[in-house]
């Protein structure tokens, strides 16, 4: 089942200024994760920051088996490559959450920095219009990124980003937050 969910060669490569991309979830894996969070359907407004409203499902709480599988793949494969690329301290997953944008809840997200050492985003579907993740200072969006691919970037200081207005459909994504690990 592992090979049905994850790409076997998730080589990171630069696609923007300090923005890396890798094959991560297969289309089947992205569909499986999206179906799981839809089935759980425990979307709640985040408690982190009232200024930056999002509809979240925290995987560690609501789908712990999937959380562990994703966390392990990120910690073992993706994050070490990013750390090597940026020649920085180690990083480990701190939080994994699914987010959604709908016309009747959240349609966009203002520019912000994350409370994350290295941040990641995985598109879980593409049957929506608008709602592109964008980095204005880096002149980059995820509009042409394939479902299941992971984008990662330094989260706290250099990469202000937001989500443009959703025009139709429902957008689902996985967000990865990490913390610095010096061990």
SSE layout and pairing:
Layout lengths: L1 H4 L7 E4 L2 E5 L3 H14 L3 E2 L9 E4 H4 L1 H23 L3 E12 L7 E4 L5 E6 L4 E3 L2 E3 L4 E2 L7 E6 L6 E3 L2 E4 L1 E11 L2
Antiparallel strand pairs: 1-2, 2-11, 3-4, 4-5, 5-14, 6-12, 7-11, 7-14, 8-13, 9-10, 9-12
Quickly count the domains: 1
Order of H and E elements: HEEHEEHHEEEEEEEEEE
Overall average residue pLDDT = 90
Terminal residue distance: 31 Å
Shape: globular
What is the β-strand count? 14
Oligomer: single chain
**What structural class is derived from the secondary structure elements?**
alpha+beta
Strand order of the largest sheet: 1-2-11-7-14-5-4-3
Question: What does this protein look like?
Answer:
This protein has one domain: Jelly Rolls, CATH 2.60.120.620. Helices cover 25% and strands 38% of the residues. The chain is built from 4 helices and 14 strands. It has an 8-stranded antiparallel beta sheet with strand order 1-2-11-7-14-5-4-3. It starts with a helix and ends with a strand. The model has no long low-confidence stretch (mean pLDDT 90).
Task: For this entry, give a set of tags.
183 residues, alpha+beta, Jelly Rolls, eight-stranded antiparallel sheet, 14 strands, 38% strand
In short:
This protein is of the alpha+beta class and 183 residues long. The protein has a single domain, classed as q2cbj1_9rhob like domain (Jelly Rolls), CATH 2.60.120.
